[in-house]
């Protein structure tokens, strides 16, 4: 069986507009990888057109920004059009240096764990944001995990280390947040971005060679309506009889 190769991982655009947000964005970006940082005087979260323009310029499918009001904004685009954007207010932030344990290793594979989110669009966005696009993974070698959980106070995003006894320890960063606002595109555009057909194709299937085959249904032909050209021999027989 041929292993399906994952699609290319999306580049994350980190738009830095304040000093405090720069530290948060760089910590997330250095752990995630495939991140491009750029400085802007104001946060682009207030203008959809500005976000789309910057993402198109940097050829990135995801973006991240922290505003001066300590709001974490993440989003993604499809065909240069914004399809998801979520804004959180950061109530508490702990950097990697705030933990007594050793800091996380870089360029390591990690899990993405979601807990009690109960929002399929938000879950899909977070998975797409941190997805590593790996086709083969040795579970025993994965020692880290991003955890995104919903609590009574709001949401928690943290990076943890998986120990040998399968327990975990926080190694930072850690963010406690509450949802401020969110935007999601229409279901039709969302399905299109996932590569799903808008309408199911009936009477079609694929064979062993992945060729699409189908069945055509046509009306039964009435042979009595067909006019045949009479031959001379036929005319002669008719007149003789």
TrEMBL record:
Biological-process GO terms, alphabetical: maturation of LSU-rRNA from tricistronic rRNA transcript (SSU-rRNA, 5.8S rRNA, LSU-rRNA); ribosomal large subunit assembly
Primary localization class, coarse: nucleus
Residues in Brix domain copies: 46-181
GO molecular function, one term: rRNA binding
Cellular localization per UniProt: Nucleus, Nucleolus
UniProt KW keywords: Nucleus
Entry keyword Nucleus: yes
GO cellular component, one term: nucleolus
InterPro entries: Brix, Rpf2
Entry protein name: Ribosome production factor 2 homolog
Record family assignment: Belongs to the RPF2 family.
């Amino acid at each position: 069986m041929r292993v399906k190769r994952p699609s290319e991982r999306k580049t994350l655009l980190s738009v830095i507009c304040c000093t405090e947000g720069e530290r948060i964005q760089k910590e997330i970006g250095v752990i995630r990888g495939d991140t491009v940082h750029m400085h802007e005087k104001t946060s682009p979260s207030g203008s959809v057109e500005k976000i789309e323009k910057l993402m198109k310029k940097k050829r990135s499918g995801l973006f991240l920004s922290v505003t001066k009001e300590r709001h974490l904004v993440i989003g993604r685009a499809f065909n240069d059009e914004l399809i998801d954007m979520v804004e959180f207010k950061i109530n508490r932030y702990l950097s990697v240096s705030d933990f007594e344990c050793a800091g996380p290793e870089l360029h390591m594979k990690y899990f993405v764990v979601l807990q009690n989110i109960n929002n399929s669009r938000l879950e899909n966005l977070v998975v797409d944001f941190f997805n590593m696009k790996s086709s083969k993974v040795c579970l025993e070698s994965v020692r880290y995990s991003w955890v995104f959980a919903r609590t009574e106070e709001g949401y928690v995003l943290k990076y943890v280390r998986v120990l040998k006894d399968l327990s975990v320890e926080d190694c930072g960063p850690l963010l406690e947040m509450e949802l401020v606002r969110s935007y999601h595109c229409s279901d039709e555009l969302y399905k299109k971005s996932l590569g799903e057909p808008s309408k199911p194709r009936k009477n079609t299937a694929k064979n062993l060679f992945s060729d699409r085959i189908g069945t055509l249904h046509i009306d039964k032909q009435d042979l009595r309506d067909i006019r045949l050209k009479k031959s001379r021999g036929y005319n002669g027989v008719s007149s003789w009889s």
